[in-house]
Amino acid sequence: MKLKVENLARIKEAEIEVKNLTLFVGENSTHKSYMAHVIYEFYKEVANLKDDYGMFSRFEAFISKKVQQQYKNEIEYILSLKRELTEERQIDYNEWIDEEYAILKIFINKEDERLVVFFKDIVDLLLKELTKKINASFNLSEEILKKLYIKNMMNIFDKDYLSITFSVPLAHFEEDNEELKYKIINTIINFFLDDLYNKLNKYNSSYYFPVSRAGFVLTIDQIYTGILSDKLIDQVSSTRLGEPTIDFIQTFAEIKTGNIDEMKMDSKLFSQNNTYEKSSYLVSFLEKNIIQGKIKETRNEQDYTSYYLEVGGINLDLHLASSATLETLAFVLFLKNIKDITKTFFVIEEPEAHLQVKAQIQMAKFIVMLSNAGVKVLVTTNSDYILNEINNCIKLDTIKKENEFAISKDNVSAYLFENEENEPIVKRLEIDKYGIANDCLDEVLEELLDRSNELDKKILDNA
Description:
- 46% of the residues lie in helices and 23% in strands.
- By secondary structure, the chain is an alpha/beta fold.
- The protein folds into three domains: 9-28 and 343-463, no CATH class; 59-130 and 155-200, no CATH class; 208-342, no CATH class.
- It starts with a strand and ends with a helix.
């Protein structure tokens, strides 16, 4: 399923397909982070469509009211379908009432253009609400996203028709009974939302890793205290951070304060589920290849955790650790505390930040391993080293060699963000057995080499 946006800041239009690994590449100020923000918030809001009781209480009443106001003719049309389809009756006894019910069956054909338009409008109503929430998550005074679409929306149904069956008291079975109309429409809306939710809710949880990870790691306590104070008095955060970044800070702080126990796996489950083994292996990879040390922790009586780096038998406080350690620490802590990394969504901004070239290559391998472990990963990057190493991972898969770093080209999507006449545009990059077409980043390197060769030639001419 593809997401399409219209008028996202200066991007007029863009269409994104999120795969196991999705890459946003290109120059600065082309709105890569804006797009990543929108996709993160979209999937987070979809996961929150249902309340704690498994109901669509946040949207059902709103959509039902709008539908009954705007689509009276369509409702009457749907009601007319029940006359010939209401054939069964039965007596339904329960502990509270003794009342005769009719079994109502409604069949909705996807080829029925009138109903296709009706259900498309229900999706549009839902997307408008999600768009409002996404706009609010930017914590800006102006609207930054105009429209959000789901491409091929009617393909969410597995069959050519929908069959909806539910019981209705005979007392409500008169032709123009308003309670019956309300019951039917709400049931259809719930059925439709549930089907839509199951198709869209690809991830159990989403995690955002902002580009300023190192700074947040060092100042997490002070920043979180301010954010928490704002939440307690129900006001927009005075820190002027976007909601994804606030989510990162809050999750990081909850890990440190021990308030995230529900996300941790019981030790008995470790032997029954390989999720912990995957997380542990990924953590070990980061510690060995990038951090080059072990992340250790101490916990005080208030269950508050402090972290330090153990390297060569020496313990270093985080403020003395390298920037590479600080940039990578969040991945280590999140992986150690997430209950199940499969069906989670990681959005990672500029994983190359503060990493020297060799470490960037190792980070690219980590991203591929993360994807292969079941995590859906979206990355924004300016690094040709990361892109080229991911290409190597695609080539590994092409030659059919079993390798932990191999990834299928079918599981990867990549998009180029660039400015044309001061307007950001988004282009889908071709991916084949040799990897991602990455001329966009090679051009800069070629210009640098050409300039260097030109200067070398002048030096020789003046010798």
